[in-house]
Amino acid sequence: MRDKWIVMLGIHPKSREKGGISTVVDTYRATGLFERWPVRYIGTMVSGSRVAKISVAVSAFFDFARLLLVGRVAVVHAHTASRASFWRKSIFILPALAMRVPVILHLHGAEFEQFYRNECGAFAKAFARGVLNRVDRVIALSAQWRTVIKSIAPRAHVVTIANPVPIPTLPTVAAREANLLLFLGRFGRRKGIFDLLQALTLVRQRFPDVRLRCGGDGDVAGVIARVRELGLEQHVEILGWVSGAAKERELMRATIYVLPSYAEGLPMGVLEAMAAGVPTIATRVGGIPDAIDDGVHGLLVLPGDIDALAERIMQLLDDAALRARLGAQARERAAAMFGTERVVAQIDDLYRSFGIESADGTPFKGVGVGTTNGAQSSTQRQSKNATRSTVP
After folding, report:
1. 27 and 152 share one domain
2. What CA dihedral angle connects 226, 231, 235 and 241, to 10 degrees?
3. Are 334 and 165 in contact (CB under 8 A)?
4. DSSP 3-state of 41
5. Chain-centre distance of CA 64, in angstroms?
6. Fewer CB near the terminus (10 Å): N or C of the chain?
């Protein structure tokens, strides 16, 4: 298959909207995945005006369709969330299924279950189930998300592959600043930033010098307004979107990382904090409990429990030994479960399972991809492709 592409679909590199998918794809690039494999990346969504979004989507579809029609697509690897992202990727997936091209659906959507169960009508649910059941692989980010996907689409062939995170070298001298909290993520209710601000009003009563640095995009105006309403101007700093070396510096400065989300896939912010040895407080949602054992690799609270969130923050600010232990154990867990070499090797193995040859010619060994379905050979999958319906 050296004359064919692995077509990867995701967010356009020039999009101002960032998030987990962009971070994961950037990590793939940094590890040389696109050099080892014949990957052709096509951005299907960009931030901006409606005209810009339509223009990018149409251009992406024609680029993809041209490759599909001339037989240059070996596998489609589609990164998707929920709602518009899922419907948009379906426009690319359906013709690939119709032409018997293998499809990997990489599901990142933190609210996919809510989207499916509460927002889809009968026809939309049947369509979504059909897509999940008929693609060749569905990548779930955690064991919890695998269970959710199988409950929606029992015939889906689900493999569990976590998000990859680089493990940074820690400074020889501790650079943590006293009583400094860090939040990284999209500003809005889902990530729990408004709950964190409310909790901060309780924390500052005991720790009057506590500070919170917030990096992200989204409802920036809403967050600024809430900071003023709560009288937290001297305690909160809005950083804007933080990435690269700037993000690493923030993680090295922070005393505690806090992400009190209401819904998650497997948040990169939590993984990055763990990798940097930052003690983390998060919520029991999505794949977070698969990454953090409460009291071992961090502290967990229920979403929306502001009093518990404040108590956990104060507990960590009070106990340097606990912070050190949680941070060290979180870093060990991140390296063992989510390190880039381990995770990207699973993507390598998944690509080889479709009979694609990497640049170094390393053959498929049938190991490394987490699944409880049992591995299927590419021959078996092709047999299934030949008999399945092409319309979900």
Report:
1. yes
2. 20
3. yes
4. strand
5. 24
6. N
CB 318 within 8 A of CB 227: no
Put simply, whether the predicted model's pTM sits higher than 0.90 gets the answer no
CA distance 212 to 232: 10
Q: Per the domain annotation, does 172 fall within a domain?
A: no
- Helix (H/G/I), strand (E/B), else coil: 262: coil
Q: What distance in Å separates the CA atoms of residue 300 and residue 358, rounded to the nearest whole number?
A: 41
Range of the domain at 109: 5-164+340-387
Q: Are residues 323 and 375 in the same domain?
A: no
Q: Does 214 fall in a domain?
A: yes
DSSP string, 352-388: HTTTPPPTT-PPP-S-S-B-SS----HHHHHHHHHHS
SS3 content of the chain, % helix, strand, coil (to 5): 45, 15, 35
Longest CA pairwise span in the chain (Å): 67
pLDDT tens digit sequence for 290-333: 999 999 999 999 999 999 999 999 999 999 999 999 999 999 99
Pair 13, 160 in one domain: yes
CATH of the domain at 74: 3.40.50.11930
Could you tell me if 196 and 280 are in contact, meaning their C-beta atoms sit under 8 angstroms apart? no
